[in-house]
């Protein structure tokens, strides 16, 4: 299969995976003006602590076996073997979730006193969250299995339905019934329960009884996953633990403003998340083709070009987004949003950088660099947060995140060389960062004048980069035109 066709396949899958994110984020953005008029920044602080704590528990429960399952799934063409791989993950994941859910439920009072001493209903919120843990197993596994089968449309459909149901119940409980903060967690519980039958439908040809759990298979998958566990925990520490440091070192208002900054920056995650979902199945599926390395190299260039431009746009217009979506109480989150937008870009680079190590099943460096990155993050948080508050937390995230692709590109090249053009890519990244810095020197008193000047600045940067990457732009142009041509023929 040609380089053109391979890159077209990657972009096509990324576009499909991104569709659910676009629609979901559009609905979320639509709800933000409502929520910011219902909840105060202090309320957002409570939401942030609970949300990021839940994500930490979810990461622990997955135990990085999703990565093992993907690798073992593509190691064989036997459906029976693949079914054993999937069921080994399912049943470990389910029973672990039952155990941790019970532990969380009965320790809710302690956790509330430790992290949310000023929130009277904090323990009840934690118990509602704990009930969701074993129920989320089925949708999580179903989405991943559909990705393994390269059923991008079905995977996205399930994710989209999940998001729409959750948002729908949030509107009902929070906006219409006015249940306050508790409405968020009732919505999460009810939507998770409702989606179990749909998840089972997609898994019906794969799921078996617990007897399908293969202990010998699990040992190999577990050994492969172990280095990814500190990597996964490191991901949480680097990207999401800032709210806990702010909660300890500052106040809940700073936590809430930081969370709003995360919400604006998460729009940039539309592109990076879509790419990250499409990348592993795509990369492994073409691994044994003769032009695989060339495809991988061009993929980095295309990613940095398209996603970098998108992230820069979001970063530059963070203030305008806050003015449209929130009240003046939240405008202080502007700089946090601008900084964290580039963290989304670095996350995608991290996925590409680990490819060589993953192909050769040399995953120990992945865990080590995430551990080191986490330690650097902790140190930077203690240094920067007391000095510059929430902006310090955002800078700590980006500096720590940058270590991961920088190290893993170097290490992966030793295992599996890919002809990346690092110099050109680095220059492009610096141009994007320079544009964001320059945008803060532009006058911001007039909303429309600010928008016009920023668009001119972005146009200048786009033209400069276009001169550097004519070949890659031609490739993307051909991909787009071939897409439209195919659609018109159909």
Summed up:
The chain is mainly α and 490 residues long.
Q: How would you describe what is shown here?
A:
The protein is an all-alpha fold. It folds into 2 domains: 1-21 and 226-490, no CATH class; 65-220, no CATH class. The protein contains 22 helices and no strands. The protein has helices spanning 3-38, 41-62, 65-73, 79-106, 108-115, 122-148, 152-176, 181-203, 215-225, 228-240, 242-249, 252-265, 269-285, 292-316, 318-325, 334-353, 355-359, 364-388, 390-415, 422-439, 447-468, 470-489. The protein is globular, with a radius of gyration of 22 Å. It starts with a helix and ends with a helix.
Number of DSSP helices?
22
The beta-strand count equals 0
Number of domains: 2
Order of helices and strands: HHHHHHHHHHHHHHHHHHHHHH
Q: Can you summarize the main beta sheet?
A: none
* Mean of all residue-level pLDDT scores: 84
Strand content: under 5%
Secondary-structure blueprint:
Elements: H1 3-38, H2 41-62, H3 65-73, H4 79-106, H5 108-115, H6 122-148, H7 152-176, H8 181-203, H9 215-225, H10 228-240, H11 242-249, H12 252-265, H13 269-285, H14 292-316, H15 318-325, H16 334-353, H17 355-359, H18 364-388, H19 390-415, H20 422-439, H21 447-468, H22 470-489
What labels describe this entry?
490 residues; mainly alpha; 2 domains; 84% helix; O-antigen/teichoic acid export membrane protein; transmembrane helix; transmembrane; membrane; Poly_Biosynth_Transport
